[in-house]
Each structure stands twice: as structure tokens, then as C-alpha cells.
Specification:
It contains 33 helices and 26 strands.
């Protein structure tokens, strides 16, 4: 090569090679990414978001489009570094033999210097010197560094701010950048991308944190799309291709022509919300609205205006149609704001699975445009709601029925859609074929942790913020979280307010204090720091205008389901044993008395327990107490989280069939046959069940009201047993544990499931109202707020002076403990979480860096979910182990998708404290160690130990403790 040729752009620098017939020149990938970015800018972002980014940069929308597209084309510039090129040794050997790049072997050993770091470190000076970008004042505030740091984070983590002296001469501080020849090629690639894409204008402005999140998200998705082999292979340059100006122009033209089809094929785009008559409630749903739904549908559009946005808070009892009210609000907000989609966030995977179908049905009926719908939670890939039709279901049942080959696969019909024809995503579709891709779908239903992870620093946290920045976000059960999650919710709402994203919050039991915190967080993010008094009404709703910060409302509405909740408090000595006799005045005797009419006259009852172990013991005891009921199929049922996943799904299906909404096919009218469901807190949110009677162990008032909402949930005129009383007076029996002196005494077995102070307050409040009943919805908001009131004791009108003073002293101690715990949880959330958008100050590393180690793991453990996973291996004759009791499902040795699903669907969640240390666990198949979902499970070899009520009882050992399993009771320690 002559010196002149060496100064030309060198196409030997490669950008992609995995799964390709050869090396793909870096310059081609850079231009491809820019072309895809421009299409995403056009097709994904709303007009309002495009205008906002342009205004911040001080450019027209057309100029901002090209400038940000130019930036996207620079994201992999750090691949022109020895540590990256050496990943293909032959390619590095060729370059290292060239005098221009030679002598880089030492730099190639800088394996910790990743190519995204190279992008960040090299681009600051290139943008300042070659691009003319400002680099004055604070480094983090300078656009040159903002862009470099943003692009250096395209793999999910942003680097630290680079000191000015290092940014000006990066090669002197980072040997991994290589020598002068490498720097010159980065400069030449920079110049050609700018020339071809056309982003030559220099922005006079900068980026806010929220605008940076949006641009970064588009860059990431553009990179992912342009990295697929299906895109690259047809564009591989031929022999002799040199990267001349004409060749680059031709490649760019072809990329721009193909990019729209690539984006459409990936199903990335926007939905259209109905306008005019098409947006009326009666057109959105196949039924007339109730008072709440009608008020939201008719009044909200006028409050939002033509191009407005904001937050809607809906508070109403369980069963009052909040979901439909939320979707009607989403239509009004989405249409006015130009939102590109909708995400429905729920507290549990079960509720998310159930909501998926409702969102699919609604989108198919009411929305237009790109309506790809994704289920987003940690177990989504195991859920059947997104499975294509034609899956062989045998191994998806607990009783397999016939032998399955060791590496048997689940066969699906290729190309079959699920979830509805317009919203379904093919099983092999782009959105379902990679981690985090589903965040880009216009429509989604999932667990709230999937979006709250955006404010917990970690890899791709900012991508989760991007996923909701331009969508209508509905958060159901906004009351259902503890202090840690509530603090994250507050921070997340600050970001949504900063984005100007439309939000709908739903709650059945939200205290006025928490409602105020959530509303103020959104207003603060939108730029309104002066608090305003927020007092929700029940039932009713309010609206917060993101442009003015004004709170409109609250608007009270009538409830079509007014009723009086008859609450009976039974003060009992605590016991959870099994047998004919219990303690005098004990819990078991009280349950027998309360449930006797169910066994004798029919009807259905729910018994809600505080822990899984107590639910299992209660289930056993009720089978002894009511043998005829227990002898009939479905007479006594048990539902909790400690079943293998596939078995829990079957139990849940049986509960929905037995206790679900009336009017199902094959249902016999009239009083239902006697049946009792013993369950844990999972029935509060996960299932649409309807009981004639609800019995609950003592819990905080909000949880008790949620459980009471499962009583008389659906109208069954003439379909209730005689003992049940009037349809509009549902009964809730609360079992209050007391000690020998009659003082409220939560048992030690409950641990910290609930705050003891709230339990004592709830018990005192319910006793004080004994005989009055609770008017729903009229009394609910006042009672929920009263439980947390500082002057709580003073409001107990029926208590004696001695009782008041004793309660005052006890609550002072308990409240101090609770307030300390709440403060600690909130402080941890603030330390672990992403800072408010106003506090980022141009340093994007604050979006992926936490002051607390393991912040991402805290998100799931603080949800209170069981953090351990156990796999029962059932020992068969001859010592062979199987995944099922019948011995028909062998333990797979491989790690293929079907094998992994088969295992994961049979895992049992257990408390982390039950798990043995890694060194004490039985060895797993070698292939499982490479599968994150299987790597940390504990396998327990279970042996037959006789029969229990016609079922095989299996026993084993876990971390030195005996455990057992039966199909009807699940997994337990003994």
C-alpha cells in the first residue's frame, strides 16, 4: 500500500462476523444502523417527542432527525481498536502486519477494554475537533461528551464521565485505543458516516436526561435490527469492494430502501387510538358503561384537550369495572398525546397473564396500526397465553399419561399466531426471539417490576424507561406494594412526568397519603415542585395536567354495587394443627362453626390464611372436620404458591371453574354444591373468584377489603344458599389471634408477613365498628386512611379509658418500629435507585450505576416472592429419577428449549432460607449449568413413603430438613 492509500478508509476493519459467511465491514454496519435509526425515528416516535428532542438540540425536526441518525451510525466506532479486532485473529494478523497499524500486540492484550468503551473514549475529541461540537464548561454538560457517553452505553451500561485532560488526548490514557493509525481510521469512519448520512449541522443545544433515554433506546434497537444475519448476508460486499465514496453512497441507498421493511417485519411501530364516534365507550366495549366508566369516558377528553397528557387516578371497589375505565382513559390520553402504544402493569404474573387476553381483545376491537402485543414478566416464555396453537400438551399437565422421550420436544405448527390475529406475535418473531426485544412492542401486559427496573440501575435500565416514555401506562393495584416498591414507584412516576407520558393508576384501597405521594411525584417530574393537596374520593377519579401541573377533580361517582359488608370478628387462640379437637376458643373450633353451613346446606366459602404452612395445615384440618365434603371431588381445595408451576396452573384452572364468574358454558343454575377453598394472599389479586362467604385470618385493613371483594363479587340472584343472607350484605369473618389476656397477638409463625402495628390497629378498628357493618364504597376511603392516622387511638369511641391507654402505649412501640423499617426501606430504595431526571445533570452513568451492590437483585427479592427454586425428582423402581410421580417423564440431560421449559414448569418456589448452600446441593446434569434458569435450583430426591387419602406421599431432605410432597397439598417442610 502506498501512503496515500493508507490514508483512505480501510474496509478491513470488521463490524460483524458471527453466523456470517465472512467479515462484514464496520462502515457497512455503521451505515446500516443509521438507516434503521431514521426509520425508527419516523415510525416509532410520536410527533411531540420528535419536536421535543429537536427543541432541546436547538434544531428543526428534520435537522434533528439527521443529526441523531448520524450519532447512531457512530455507536460501534470503538470497534476500531486492537482488543476488538483481535477477536478474529486472522483479521488482526493482517492489520498488525501493516506498518500503519503494526506494533499493536500489546494494545490487543487490553482485554478489559471493550469496544463500547472505545466508542466513548474516542468520540469526545472527535466530536469536538472534527464535528465542531462544544466542549466547554462542565464535561458532563458538554454535548460532545453527552453524545459519546450515550453511544458508549449502547450495550446497556454507561461509562463514567471522562476527565477533560483524558478526553482531549484519550490515547495517552487508554492503550486499548491503539496508535495513530487506529485513531486515523476512526476519524475517517467518523467523517464518512457524517458525509453519507448528512448530519453535518452542529446542534447549539444539549440533551435532557429524558431525551437522552429516548435517543439511546432508538440507537439500541437500530443496532439490534441491523445486526441480524438475515439483514447482513444479502448486503455483504463483493470481492474488490473498497469502500469508495460511490460504493458507500450505493450501500447507503440500499440500506435506506430496505430499512422500512426490516422495521415492519420486526413489528416495531405505533398503534392508532380511535377518534370521534369510534372512541365512544359503546364502540370500545360490547356493553353499556357504568357510572364510573361513563364519567371517565365523557369528561376526561375535555380535560386532556387536543394535544394534552397527564395522569389519571381511579379509586373504586373491586369489581367496579376499573379495567374498562382505564382502557377508556387510555384511549382519550393516547389520542391526545400521540402515544405510540399501551402497557398494562400488574402486580403478579398471574394477573398479567389474565390481562393479556383482555388487552388483546380490546386492541383487536378498538385500536389500529401496529398492534403487536407482548407478555412481559420473568416467566412469560413459560406462559401458555403466548404459545402458538397446536402445541402438544401432554407434558404440560402434572399427570403426563404416557411416556415421553428423554429429549422429547413440544411440536408447534409453524407460523401459527396466538393471542388474536392482529395482536399476536409469531413464536419465532423478532420481538420474541431475544431478551428485552419485547420492550419495543407497541402493546404490552406484564408485571410492574419489568418497568420499575428502569429506575434500578443496571444493564439496559434506561431501555426499560424508553419502553414507556411514549406510551400510555396503566398501573393496576397501585396500593399493593411495600415501602421499597412504593419508593421506586415514586421515582418511576417522576420519570414518566418528565417524559410527559400519559399514566393511569388504579386502586381499590389506596390511602390518601400514598395517593398524594404518587400524584406529587408525577407533578415533580413534570417540573412542578410546589405540592398541592390531593384528596382522592371513593369511588371516583382525578386528572393531573402534565403541562400545567393542575389537579382537576377529584370527581366522585356513584357505584352500581353499593352494599354493606357485615364484618364479624372472632377472637381466637391461635392454633393450626390437625385433629378432632382443638383448643377451647381456638381458631380450629371457630372455623368449624363458621363453615358448618357450607358442609350442611351447600354454597362456597373462601378461607384466606397468612402463610403457606398454615394454609396446608388448615386444609388438612378441614378435611378431618368435614369428611363428607372432603370426600367429594372439589369439596375442599387448596391454593398457594408452593406447588410445582404446572400443578399450580391446574389447581388455579379448577378454582376458576368452580368459583368463577357465573354464566359459563355447562354451568348449572342455582346454589352451588358445598365447597371450601383454603388459600393464601394470592387470591387477593390474581383471580376473578366469587364466594358466598369469606373467612380470613387477621390482616391489614386494605388486604381484608381486597379479600372481602371476593365475596358476592358477581350477581347470583337466587343462586345463594339460604344461610348467606341478602345479596347486598356480603359477610367477612375475621379471625383475630389473641393471647390469654385477650390482647391481639399475631402468632410468631407469621413473622413479618404483615406489620404488627397495622394488625393491631385493624383489629381495634373492626371491633369498634362491630355490628355497624362497612358501607362499600362509602366508608372505605375513610377507614383506609383512619388505620394510618396519628390520632388513631382517639377515634376509638367504644374503648374504655384503660384499653385506650394500653393500646396507645403498645401502638407507640409498634409504630416506632414500623416507621423505622419504612424509613430504612425507602432509604435503601433511594440509594439503590436511579436519581430523579432533574438530578442526572448530563451524566448518563447515573442511569446504570448504583450506590448499592446488587441493586437489580433487590428488585425481585423486595417484592416478597419466594426466592429459592426446588425441583422434585421422584425416585422410581430401580433408583431411576423422573420429573413426574408416574415415572413417565425422564430428567432431561440437555439444555434445549423444550427440555428447559419442561423442567422450569415443575419448579417449586420456596423461601430462600430453605435453600442449601451451593456446595451442599446435589449435582445437576452438566448441561444445566449453562442455563441461568436452572443453574441455581436445588434438586431434591423424593422417595415414596406411603399413601395419604389415596395419594402417594413423597419424602426427601432439603438442607438437613425433611420435606414432603403430595399432589393436593404441595411441597412442605415437616
Amino acid at each position: 500500500m502506498s501512503n496515500g492509500e493508507r490514508l483512505a478508509l480501510d474496509v478491513r476493519f470488521w463490524g460483524k462476523e458471527h453466523g456470517l459467511p465472512g467479515l462484514y465491514p464496520l462502515i457497512c454496519h455503521l451505515l446500516d444502523s443509521a438507516a434503521v435509526f431514521l426509520v425508527l425515528w419516523d415510525e416509532v416516535l410520536s410527533e411531540g417527542m420528535r419536536r421535543r428532542i429537536a427543541a432541546e438540540l436547538g434544531l428543526s425536526v428534520a435537522e434533528a432527525r439527521l443529526v441523531t441518525g448520524f450519532w447512531a451510525g457512530l455507536h460501534d466506532l470503538g470497534k476500531i481498536t486492537p482488543p476488538f479486532v483481535v477477536k478474529v485473529p486472522e483479521a488482526f494478523k493482517v492489520l498488525d502486519g501493516d506498518a500503519v497499524y503494526g506494533g499493536s500486540a500489546g494494545a490487543a492484550e487490553e482485554r478489559g477494554f471493550r469496544h463500547e468503551m472505545g466508542t466513548h473514549w474516542s468520540l469526545v475529541s472527535l466530536l469536538a475537533k472534527e464535528g465542531g461540537y462544544g466542549f466547554e464548561g462542565r464535561v458532563a454538560g458538554a454535548l460532545a461528551h453527552q453524545v459519546a457517553q450515550l453511544l458508549g452505553g449502547h450495550h446497556g451500561c454507561f461509562g463514567e464521565v471522562i476527565a477533560r485532560r483524558k478526553a482531549v488526548d484519550p490515547g495517552a490514557y487508554q492503550a486499548g485505543l491503539g496508535g495513530a493509525g487506529w485513531a486515523e481510521q476512526r476519524r475517517l469512519h467518523f467523517g464518512e458516516v457524517r458525509r453519507v448520512v448528512g448530519g453535518g449541522v452542529v446542534p447549539p443545544g444539549g440533551l435532557s436526561a429524558e431525551a437522552a433515554v429516548v435517543v439511546h433506546g432508538l440507537v439500541v434497537f437500530a443496532d439490534w435490527l441491523a445486526s441480524g444475519a438475515g439483514w447482513i448476508v444479502p448486503r455483504m460486499p463483493g470481492v474488490g469492494w473498497s469502500g469508495s465514496a460511490a460504493e458507500l453512497d450505493a450501500h447507503w441507498a440500499a440500506a435506506c430502501a430496505g430499512a422500512p421493511g426490516l422495521v415492519r417485519g420486526a413489528r416495531l411501530g405505533r398503534v392508532g387510538f380511535p377518534e370521534g364516534e369510534a372512541g365512544r365507550f359503546e364502540r370500545l366495549f360490547p356493553f353499556a358503561p357504568n357510572a364510573l366508566q361513563q364519567d371517565v369516558a365523557e369528561v376526561l377528553p375535555g380535560l386532556v384537550g387536543e394535544q394534552g397528557s397527564g395522569l389519571v387516578l381511579v379509586t373504586a371497589p373491586t369489581g367496579d369495572g376499573k379495567t374498562e375505565a382505564a382502557l377508556a382513559a387510555a384511549v382519550a390520553l393516547g389520542r391526545a398525546s400521540g402515544a405510540r402504544g399501551l402497557f398494562f402493569a400488574l402486580p403478579t404474573m398471574a394477573t398479567a397473564d389474565a390481562m393479556f387476553g383482555r388487552v388483546a381483545e380490546f386492541a383487536g376491537r378498538a385500536l389500529v396500526g401496529e398492534r403487536a402485543l407482548m407478555l412481559l414478566h420473568s416467566g412469560a416464555w413459560l406462559s401458555s397465553v403466548m404459545d402458538p396453537a397446536g402445541v402438544v400438551g401432554g407434558v404440560d399437565r402434572w399427570r403426563v399419561g404416557e411416556a415421553v422421550p428423554d429429549e422429547g420436544a413440544e411440536v408447534a405448527e409453524a407460523g401459527v399466531f396466538s393471542g388474536g390475529s392482529v395482536t399476536a406475535v409469531e413464536a419465532d418473531g423478532w420481538l420474541r426471539s431475544g431478551a428485552r426485544r419485547g420492550l419495543g412492542a407497541a402493546l404490552g401486559a406484564g408485571t410492574v417490576d419489568q418497568v420499575l427496573a428502569g429506575v434500578v440501575p443496571g444493564r439496559y435500565s434506561s431501555l426499560r424507561l424508553f419502553s414507556v416514555a411514549d406510551k400510555v401506562v396503566v398501573v393496576d393495584e397501585a396500593h399493593a406494594y411495600g415501602p421499597w416498591m412504593q419508593a421506586l414507584m415514586v421515582r418511576w412516576l417522576e420519570w414518566l412526568g418528565a417524559f410527559g407520558a400519559p399514566v393511569v393508576l388504579l386502586s381499590a384501597t389506596l390511602s390518601g397519603r400514598v395517593a398524594g405521594e404518587l400524584v406529587e411525584a408525577y407533578r415533580r417530574g413534570a417540573g412542578f415542585g410546589e405540592p398541592v393537596g390531593v384528596g382522592p374520593v371513593y369511588p371516583g377519579w382525578l386528572f393531573v395536567d402534565v403541562a400545567s401541573g393542575e389537579v382537576r377533580g377529584p370527581r366522585a361517582v356513584a357505584s352500581g354495587r353499593e352494599r354493606v359488608l357485615d364484618v364479624g370478628v372472632r377472637r381466637v387462640r391461635w392454633e393450626a394443627g390437625v385433629g378432632e379437637r382443638g383448643v377451647a376458643g381456638g381458631r380450629r373450633a371457630a372455623l368449624r362453626e363458621v363453615l358448618a353451613p357450607v358442609a350442611g346446606e351447600g354454597g362456597v366459602a373462601l378461607v384466606c390464611c397468612s402463610t403457606v404452612a398454615e394454609a396446608q395445615a388448615t386444609f388438612r384440618d378441614l378435611r378431618v372436620a368435614f369428611p363428607e365434603l372432603a370426600g367429594r371431588e372439589g369439596g375442599v381445595r387448596l391454593l398457594h404458591s408452593r406447588f410445582p408451576g404446572v400443578l399450580r396452573a391446574e389447581v388455579t384452572e379448577g378454582c376458576e371453574a368452580a368459583y368463577g364468574k357465573p354464566g359459563r358454558a355447562g354451568e348449572v343454575p342455582g346454589v352451588r354444591a358445598g365447597s371450601i377453598l383454603v388459600a393464601t394472599q394470592i387470591v387477593e389479586q390474581s383471580l376473578d373468584l366469587d364466594f358466598d362467604l369469606v373467612v380470613s385470618d387477621l390482616a391489614p385493613l386494605a388486604q381484608l377489603l381486597q379479600r372481602a371483594g371476593r365475596g358476592r363479587r358477581h350477581a347470583r340472584r337466587g343462586g345463594r344458599p339460604g344461610w348467606a343472607g341478602a345479596e347486598d350484605r356480603p359477610v367477612l369473618v375475621v379471625l383475630e389471634p389473641v393471647d390469654e389476656e385477650g390482647v391481639t397477638a399475631p402468632p410468631r409463625s407469621w413473622g413479618d408477613v404483615y406489620d404488627h402495628g397495622l394488625l393491631v390497629r385493624t383489629a381495634a378498628l373492626l371491633r369498634a365498628r362491630c355490628g355497624e357493618g362497612i358501607a362499600v364504597p362509602g366508608d372505605v376511603q375513610g377507614l383506609v386512611d383512619a388505620v394510618y392516622a396519628e390520632d388513631f387511638v382517639d377515634g376509638l369511641v367504644r374503648a374504655s379509658e384503660r384499653e385506650v391507654e394500653g393500646l396507645r402505649e403498645r401502638l407507640a412501640r409498634l409504630d416506632q418500629r414500623r416507621e423505622g423499617a419504612v424509613a430504612a426501606e425507602q432509604s435503601l430504595a433511594w440509594l439503590a435507585g436511579v436519581c430523579a431526571p432533574a438530578d442526572v445533570h448530563g451524566d448518563w452513568s447515573r442511569l446504570s450505576r448504583s450506590a448499592v451492590e446488587g441493586a437489580e437483585e433487590l428488585l425481585t427479592t423486595r417484592l416478597g416472592a419466594d426466592s429459592g427454586r426446588v425441583l422434585c425428582l421422584f425416585e422410581q423402581d430401580g433408583g431411576r429419577a423422573s420429573l413426574d410421580e408416574e415415572g413417565l417423564l425422564p430428567v432431561p440431560a440437555g439444555r434445549g428449549g423444550a427440555a428447559v421449559k419442561r423442567v422450569v414448569r415443575r419448579l417449586v418456589p420456596v423461601p430462600g432460607r430453605w435453600m442449601p448452600s451451593a456446595g451442599e446441593r446435589d449435582a445437576l446434569p452438566e448441561g444445566w449449568q449453562k442455563v441461568p434458569l436452572l443453574r441455581d435450583i436445588a434438586a431434591v430426591r423424593m422417595r415414596r413413603a406411603g399413601m395419604e387419602r389415596g395419594e402417594c406421599r413423597w419424602v426427601g431432605e432439603l438442607a438437613g430438613r425433611r420435606v414432603q410432597f403430595t399432589t393436593s397439598i404441595g411441597f412442605e417442610r415437616i
